[in-house]
Amino acid sequence: MRKFLWGVLFTLLVLGVGGLAFALLGYMPTHADATPPKWEESLASRALDASMEHRAPRVASPVPPTDENLIEGMKIYTMNCALCHGGLDNKPSVLQHSLYPPVPQLIIYPLDDPEWHIYYAVRTGIRYTGMPAWDKTLTEQDMWKITMLLSHLDKLPPAVQDYWKTSFGVAPTASEEKKEGKEEEKHDHH
Question: What number is the average pLDDT over the span 13-39?
């Protein structure tokens, strides 16, 4: 039994040192325009979810989802988020595939994460993705307004929907095609 345990430990040590050497000697691809292997996408997605579950405080929004706050959230989103995550015109961002991992298109495929999760991602950013931490740039109120918008995209009040349509020329509600695309996207990532 002792030889078996030493064999397991030695194998783990060799794999760890081999993986580290692989990365540090430049054999690991780092370019953002390549399609990553499925195992890497799965590992990164699971690590992100686990980190959020472990670190993000379960805080409730101090900003209510009023018409005024949701419309203000649209304006803040347009100025700070739309370039990467897609505009309120329901078109994908031109940068969608220019970053690694590809940038989620939050208007086309609305998030289904809890508000505290969305707020934490906005406030702290996401390492190695190009997603900046907004806590040094936006106020807490502004970050919550974006969070409120993103968490209510599929259930916006009529006045907010009217503002969206008037301002951006398209209806804000997710169509069945978008919802189906979201389901396909989920299956691709898990």
Answer: 83
How much is the CA Rg of the chain, to the nearest whole Å?
20
d(CA 176, CA 153): 14
d(CA 35, CA 125): 22
Q: What is the pTM of this model?
A: 0.79
In the chain, DSSP finds a helix count (H) and a strand count (E) of 8, 0
CA dihedral sign of residues 138, 144, 147, 153? negative
Rounded-to-integer distance, Cα 82 and Cα 105, Å: 9
C-alpha span between 143 and 76 (Å, rounded): 9
DSSP character for 107?
T
Give how far Cα 103 sits from Cα of 7, 86, 150, Å. 42, 9, 15
Q: Are 181 and 37 in contact (CB under 8 A)?
A: no
CB 55 within 8 A of CB 120: yes
